[in-house]
């Protein structure tokens, strides 16, 4: 194990983490809601990918758009019919509500899919560069994650709905006066959050075994990345994700993999206290 | 006048729970212990979540630390009651030190920070194998006596903790501290401006919210005889306790006790019938609570509700006549 291998592992892991955290960060930044459902959305995406792959044999990469769109629909409906009603309540109410919805989704998944760890096995082999080696499925996952991140960045920057989301984030009242239907924008934003979570789940199912017990772990990663990277910015989440990937990779090597997660949480608490806006947090949403 | 009513209702309720070992079977006593235990934690959470309005989700961390501190103290030869007290003290000191750090955060960041504390304590407990037994858990010395005696003892200790917590909450509600906390809940900057020492008030409220949970955790560990990180630092527990308080009415004195009682009994009914759906049912209760009972059971205008119902009943015969 030399330093470059650790670095590479960290970057691969970090791109996946970025993909996890972007949707969460967007929802938090724009709606001001901590979406406790995020972890379950990821696992749901992964399970759907696994079952669709098992049933049809199609490579999950091609299933990704369909599954992610289905999750967009779920997210849109949840926001439209439930969360929109309490969107401006104190954090205790919104957090408890998404927590409660998460319990329902989690329970449905354990009953219908059971908690057995599952993984899409594609057997693509590994790439060797000198004395380092990288499994191809991880590289592909990293590529997909980075592609989705870039896509979201472009959507936020260039599309009409992207600008509307940014406008609502900056000033809700002014956005309403400009003729933006805020409730609709909220629902779409939540849908995009679920879309990214579902896509991240599909990617994860190709790289690691997934099970419902991981929902909390994924949610924890999203917390940490948001605190490192600041809220609601795509580059922030990318930087935060890669930073966390590298930190966990190095911590796993130096003080053992079982302590890697702890290091992330300690770092997060430390950052919360010294710089609650995040290391690269920005005010607007570019 | 109102205070007497609170005392009366609470005393009656405690007496009913306390009478279970004399009248009922073991199953009922177990439910009574659950009620006493969760009521105690709900009353504790009310200090920070109800009076102060801080969305704290770290109950499970205090409970779990109480479990482990009590268990480790007992395994090292410290007598039972001393071990319980030591665990309580440990959790109080931990909460005060932690509170001084994380209470600088507000709103969403505080919520995230407090949830992270639960994860962090669980991770440390499961990786510190030499002290805590790691993921294998820890056996706690069993209480002496027959099963009936043990459950009666546990019940009375839990009730004692509940009573102390309740009396503390009445005292806090009427004292300067409670007034300051309510000011913080309404507008922290303004409270700071008019001379409420917000930092120390918040730390006291946070510590109060932890100390009883620590004691309950230590007693719980002795009762069940075996603890492990996933059960002790359970994310479900950290959610359930605030939900109980919200169900009863946050910031009120009787609300937490009422909410915990109703919640535990509801849960028992659902568990008996749909075991594998217990998380979904918790979620369902939360969704119902947020949309239909946003202020809790205590704040419902029962008089208006009753009036509406009576009016409906009076109109019903007329409607029937019209349609026939």
Overview of the structural elements:
The complex is a heterodimer of chains A (286) and B (324). Chain A has one domain. Chain A is built from 11 helices and 2 strands; from the N terminus they run ααααββααααααα. Chain A has helices spanning 3-31, 38-56, 60-81, 91-113, 136-158, 160-170, 172-177, 182-207, 215-229, 234-255, 260-274, and strands at residues 126-129, 132-135. A two-stranded antiparallel sheet of chain A has the order 1-2. The radius of gyration of chain A is 18 Å and the shape is globular. Mean pLDDT of chain A is 87; it is low at 282-286. Chain B has 324 residues and is mainly alpha-helical. Chain B has a single domain, classed as ABC transporter involved in vitamin B12 uptake, BtuC, CATH 1.10.3470. The model of chain B has no long low-confidence stretch (mean pLDDT 88). Chain A: It comes from Sneathiella litorea.
Instruction: State the end-to-end CA separation of chain B.
Output: 51 Å
What best-fitting shape of chain B do the alpha-carbon axes yield? globular
Roughly what fraction of the amino acids of chain B lie in strands? under 5%
- Helix count of chain A? 11
Question: How many distinct folded domains of chain A?
Answer: 1
Q: Within the CATH hierarchy, at the fold level, what is the topology of chain B?
A: ABC transporter involved in vitamin B12 uptake, BtuC
Structural class of chain B: mainly alpha
- Characterize the quaternary organization of these chains: heterodimer
The main β sheet of chain B shows up as: 2 strands, antiparallel
Q: Helix proportion of residues of chain A, in percent?
A: over 70%
N-to-C terminal Cα separation of chain A, in Å? 39 Å
Rg calculated over all Cα atoms of chain A: 18 Å
Pfam families (chain A): BPD_transp_2 (PF02653)
Transmembrane segments (chain A): 6-30, 37-56, 62-83, 95-116, 136-155, 185-210, 222-247, 259-278
GO molecular function (chain A): transmembrane transporter activity
Keywords (chain A): Amino-acid transport, Cell membrane, Membrane, Transmembrane, Transmembrane helix, Transport
């Amino acid at each position: 194990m030399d330093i470059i291998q650790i670095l590479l592992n960290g970057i691969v892991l970090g791109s996946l983490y970025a993909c996890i955290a972007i949707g969460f960060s967007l929802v938090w930044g724009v709606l001001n809601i901590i979406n406790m459902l995020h972890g379950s959305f990821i696992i749901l995406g992964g399970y759907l990918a696994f079952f669709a792959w098992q049933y049809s044999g199609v490579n999950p990469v091609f299933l990704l758009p369909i599954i992610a769109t289905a999750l967009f629909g779920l997210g849109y409906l949840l926001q439209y019919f439930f969360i929109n009603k309490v969107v401006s309540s104190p954090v205790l109410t919104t957090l408890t509500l998404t927590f409660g919805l998460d319990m329902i989704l989690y329970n449905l998944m354990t009953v219908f899919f059971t908690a057995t760890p599952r993984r899409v096995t594609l057997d693509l082999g590994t790439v060797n560069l000198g004395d380092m080696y990288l499994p191809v499925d991880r590289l592909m996952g990293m590529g997909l994650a980075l592609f989705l991140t870039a896509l979201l960045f472009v959507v936020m920057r260039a599309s009409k709905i992207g600008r509307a989301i940014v406008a609502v984030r900056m000033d809700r009242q002014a956005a309403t006066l400009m003729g933006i239907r805020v409730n609709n924008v909220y629902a779409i934003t939540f849908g995009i959050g679920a879309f990214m979570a579902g896509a991240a789940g599909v990617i994860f199912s190709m790289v690691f075994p997934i099970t419902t017990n991981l929902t909390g772990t994924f949610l924890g990663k999203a917390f940490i990345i948001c605190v490192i990277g600041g809220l609601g910015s795509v580059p922030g989440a990318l930087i935060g994700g890669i930073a966390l990937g590298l930190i966990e990779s190095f911590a796993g090597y130096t003080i053992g993999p079982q302590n890697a997660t702890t290091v992330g949480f300690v770092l997060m608490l430390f950052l919360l206290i010294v710089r609650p806006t995040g290391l690269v947090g920005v005010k607007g949403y570019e | 006048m109102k205070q007497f009513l609170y005392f009366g209702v609470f005393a009656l309720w405690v007496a009913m729970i306390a009478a279970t070992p004399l009248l009922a079977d073991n199953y009922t006593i177990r439910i009574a212990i659950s009620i006493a235990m969760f009521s105690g934690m709900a009353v504790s959470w009310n200090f920070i979540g109800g009076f102060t309005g801080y969305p704290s989700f770290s109950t499970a961390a205090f409970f779990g630390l109480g479990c482990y501190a009590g268990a480790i103290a007992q395994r090292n030869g410290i007598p039972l009651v001393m071990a319980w007290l030591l665990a309580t003290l440990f959790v109080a000191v931990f909460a005060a030190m932690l509170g001084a750090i994380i209470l600088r955060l507000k709103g969403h960041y505080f919520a995230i920070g407090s949830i992270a504390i639960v994860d962090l304590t669980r991770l440390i407990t499961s990786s510190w194998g030499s002290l805590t037994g790691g993921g294998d858990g820890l056996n706690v010395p069993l209480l002496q006596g027959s099963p009936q005696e043990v459950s009666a003892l546990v019940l009375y200790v839990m009730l004692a903790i509940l009573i102390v917590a309740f009396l503390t909450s009445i005292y806090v509600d009427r004292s300067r501290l409670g007034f300051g906390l309510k000011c913080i809940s309404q507008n922290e900057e303004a409270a700071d401006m008019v001379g409420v020492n917000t930092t120390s008030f918040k730390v006291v409220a946070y510590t109060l919210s932890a100390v009883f949970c620590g004691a309950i955790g230590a007693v719980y560990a002795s009762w069940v005889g075996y603890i492990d990180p996933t059960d002790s630092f359970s994310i479900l527990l950290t959610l359930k306790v605030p939900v109980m308080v919200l169900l009863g009415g946050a910031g009120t004195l009787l609300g937490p006790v009422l909410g915990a009682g109703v919640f535990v009994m509801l849960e028992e009914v659902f568990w008996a019938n749909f075991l594998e759906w217990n998380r979904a049912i918790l979620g369902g209760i939360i969704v119902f609570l947020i949309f239909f009972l946003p202020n809790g059971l205590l704040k419902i205008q029962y008089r208006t509700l009753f009036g509406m119902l009576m009016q409906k009943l009076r109109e019903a015969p007329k409607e029937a006549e019209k349609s026939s």
